[in-house]
Amino acid sequence: xxxxxxxxxxxxxxxxxxxxxxxxxxxxxxxxxxxxxxxxxxxxxxxxxxxxxxxxxxxxxxxxxxxxxxxxxxxxxxxxxxxxxxxxxxxxxxxxxxxxxxxxxxxxxxxxxxxxxxxxxxxxxxxxxxxxxxxxxxxxxxxxxxxxxxxxxxxxx
Length: 157
Hints:
This protein is of the alpha+beta class. The protein has one domain (2-152). It contains 5 helices and 6 strands. The protein has helices at 39-42, 61-75, 86-93, 105-115, 127-144, and strands spanning 2-4, 23-27, 33-37, 48-52, 58-59, 149-152. The strands form 2 sheets. The chain has a 3-stranded mixed sheet with strand order 1-6-5. A hairpin with a 5-residue loop joins strand 2 and strand 3 (33-37). It is elongated and about 45 Å long. The protein starts with a strand and ends in a 5-residue tail after the last strand. The relative contact order is 0.21. The model has no long low-confidence stretch (mean pLDDT 91).
């Protein structure tokens, strides 16, 4: 299993990452980990999705595998002005607190909806059931095709 850590090369500028908040870079159209990048290098790369680490931090192989499959599946959900975009908005919001948002995902969803109760929420169907179904599909894909990568930024240089 590979470990991404300090001194890894940025996939955009190719300089070593020695400090700051590195970002794991994922493809949005297929389950692919592009690499790791400086937060400043990845900030304007809209072709990719990024997960910014907040050192000292660690993501296990299971967590990286989840993210690997999460982003392409997220981008397949209805978005923009399409109907039923509420599911995509809720799922996308939980990534801000990942991985802790996964421990009580329904509580996280309910709290999110409560905080945003003034916004129109039109969803045809059962949002909670579809939310859990989406997370289950991502988890299943992550178990079937793991990333075999962990990200460990706990150690100092």
